[in-house]
Write a structure and sequence with these properties.
It is a single chain. The chain has a single domain, classed as Arc Repressor Mutant, subunit A (Orthogonal Bundle). 52% of the residues lie in helices and 10% in strands. The chain contains six helices and three strands. It has a three-stranded antiparallel β-sheet. The two termini are 15 Å apart.
């Protein structure tokens, strides 16, 4: 996951309306698809917990679980409005996220070939 944060930081200037978290989510969905192409909110939370930028100098995580969830949900709302992701929720509170064709095309045209190769080398892009 730290490699995705490096690439996300590089992409911040591509679209000023997308935040660091937005890029992290898009890159994670793009480079870590499940067999069905969908990922759960829980697995996204676990992945973002591994981002060094979200840790205090002592190594502890900088956010409470509820804060992280709100950050992610806010980002997903924006990405959904842009047509980059689909968000599915069940009555039990289980949330599933899917990168749309538009989101895939957006990333495909904005992530450099060298960054795609980097993701492939580290096993995050199949």
């Amino acid at each position: 996951m730290p490699s995705i944060s490096i690439i996300a930081r590089k992409l911040l200037g591509v679209d000023s309306s997308l935040s660091f978290v937005d890029w992290l989510i898009l890159l994670w969905l793009y480079s870590n698809p499940s067999d069905s192409g969908k990922r759960s909110l829980t697995s996204l939370q676990k992945a973002l917990r591994r981002i060094p930028d979200f840790h205090k100098p002592d190594g502890s995580f900088a956010f409470k679980d509820s804060q992280l969830e709100q950050i992610i949900l806010s980002s997903l709302k924006k990405l959904k409005e842009r047509g980059f992701v689909k968000v599915f929720s069940s009555q039990e509170g289980y949330t599933v996220i899917e990168l749309t064709g538009e989101g895939t095309n957006f990333l495909g045209s904005n992530v450099s070939d060298s960054d795609k190769n980097f993701l492939r080398e580290y096993g995050m892009l199949k």
